[in-house]
Amino acid sequence: MLERRGAGMRHDRHLRHALIDWFPQARVRAARIAVVGAGAVGNEVVKNLALLGAGAIDVFDFDRVELHNLTRAVFLREADVGAPKASALAARAAEVDPAVRVTAVEGDFWDTLPLAALAGYDCAVAAVDNFEARVRLNRMCRIAGVDFVSAGIDSRLASLEAFPFASNPDCACYECHLPESAYQRIAARYSCGGLRRVAAAERLVPTTAITASVAGALAASAALRLGRDAGDGARRVLFDTIGGGASVAALARRAGCAGCGDLGERPRVLAARAAWRERIAAIADDVAVQTSDPLIVGYACARCGDRSRAGQYVLRRARDFDDRIAICAACGEPAVRIDIRDEFTAAELVRLYPDRPPPAKFAIARAGDGALCLDFETDDQRPQQPQRRPE
Ligand SMILES: [Zn+2]
Ligand SMILES: [Zn+2]
Fold first, then answer.
1. Which of 4, 58, 109, 262 has the fewest beta carbons under 10 Å from its own?
2. Cβ(340)–Cβ(321) under 8 Å?
3. Distance 162 CA to ligand 1 centre (A)
4. What's the whole-model pTM score?
């Protein structure tokens, strides 16, 4: 029993939680959660996690605070406009409970969150406003065997999708039910199969604090797996914040899914930055290897044949450049043929990158009926062990 009075009783803070017979306060206190996105939904997810007493919350965001964020972001203030969102959110969220560690990681999570680090979390929450970030984080979580939760909002609906990869690697992934229109939306941001489209318009989601707070509450609950009926399968919750109606759907795995179809049950993840040559040499020459990032492998003008700038681009990551590099330096025409690929054989990859790994996050090799993931951001030779959550 908890002491009701008594100076400095840390447990008093969670007295009301202790009255709930199924509330796993010890597990919540030990939880490590990655929250990707420090906007409307991210603020609400972090607010709920901090109030519940989650042990550690790491917030990832590359963006800066804008005035129009302030109508939906509980932790951001006018004084924060222009400051990095992740840091502004973390600084104020840390005041909620001194026992909750809130850390900001500024920058794109794709560049700041290695697979080996992701494996140390109990759950990663996508609190972002675009399909591409969700697709990327979903695949990372599926590979690392970490629970993935995706929260979404519009002006009326809050949606929550939960994928318990840690306990059920065979469950559906985020992409198993992603409509074709989402892939078209992602593709519209790129040209030539991987260069950033310089004219791509940013799409703003019309929304209010109402849907953000509902989505944030559902996401925090799912991230901590609260409740006895959270279940072991992938599910989607849609909540109508105007009418109050809700629907829950179990999501089945789809064969041939782009997000999980090539991964088998649980891919073996091997550190492959320092040991690149050794790792790739262990894979048969003709085995297909897919890099996580499209790479530029050819650059020549189709009109005048000039390839004097090829050295600046070839072998580098396509998304580091925009489509202006398709304008030829010699003849001035937008006629450069840029060869961008993410599918190689093991032999091709080692020929292109003899000394160090490709500038990608990871690569997947299909090894028999399973899959092998080469992690290009990690030096350590030991395979990763995802942390198991205490019960
Ligand atoms: Zn899938
Ligand atoms: Zn030319």
1. 4
2. no
3. 13
4. 0.93
